[in-house]
Amino acid sequence: MSRRAFAALALLLWGIQQSQAYDTAIELAFTEVSLKLPTIASVTVCHGFGCTYRTEIGLGNGDRAKLAALLAAGRASAEAERRAVATAVAWFDRRVGPHVGTTGRIARAGFLTRTGPGQMDCIDTSRNITSLLLILDLLRLMKRHQVDTPVARGLLIDGRGLHATAVLRETRSGKKWAVDNWTRNYGERPDVLPIERWMTEY
After folding, report:
1. Can you tell me whether residue 197 is helix, strand or coil?
2. Which is the most buried residue in 30, 102, 140, 161, by most CB within 10 A?
3. Alpha helices in 101-162 (DSSP H)
């Protein structure tokens, strides 16, 4: 893991995710890696470990229509909306991959992985998914969840490596869910887990 990525994860572990003003905390999570927040017209994709590489991708009407169609499948319940978000994350990975050169991205890329622009660590994936979630929020496509701040787990001394994830917060219950595709290969659906369970996993 790069020094920059380690520092970003350390800041998260020090409690940024517990900020009362989570919008500010999200902004800080992006600032840590010099990443600008997305808009409905463009998103900057992190890749190459620790946001070493950044590629701006334009989003058009077709992209927004596709996201709307994917999220429409989640109207029935909070659980259905999380499934729809997972489908959107997989679509987004495939949408940006050919442009940023990450179609060969492998699951759990880390210390032993050859680094370069074609791979992503968890800093990259957590920020990219958070960007997508923010876009969904800007488009008002999520009815039962809000975007929360990326969180991290692991202290190295407990046998687990540092690892970060994007987070959704269920509006009605306040329950938080990890949305994590670092554990999956390019284009696959992410893990969507209760944050308490995600925190205990290796």
Report:
1. helix
2. 102
3. 122-138
Q: How many Å apart are CA 21 and CA 23, to the nearest integer?
A: 6
Q: Which residues contact 85 (CB under 8 A, 6 or more apart)?
A: 71, 74, 133, 136, 142, 145, 168, 179, 192
Give 6's contacts (C-beta < 8 A, 6+ positions apart).
162
CA distance 137 to 183: 24
- Look up tokens 């927004």; give the residue: 64
Structure tokens at 169: 């917060």
Residue spans of the domains in the chain: they are 3-200
Radius of gyration of the chain (CA): 15
Give every CB contact of residue 137 below 8 A, 6+ residues apart in sequence. 146, 147
Neighbours of 18 (CB within 10 A): 11
Tens of pLDDT, residues 102-132: 999 999 998 677 778 999 999 999 999 999 9
Helices 22-31, 122-138: axis angle to 10 degrees equals 130
Q: What is the pTM of this model?
A: 0.87
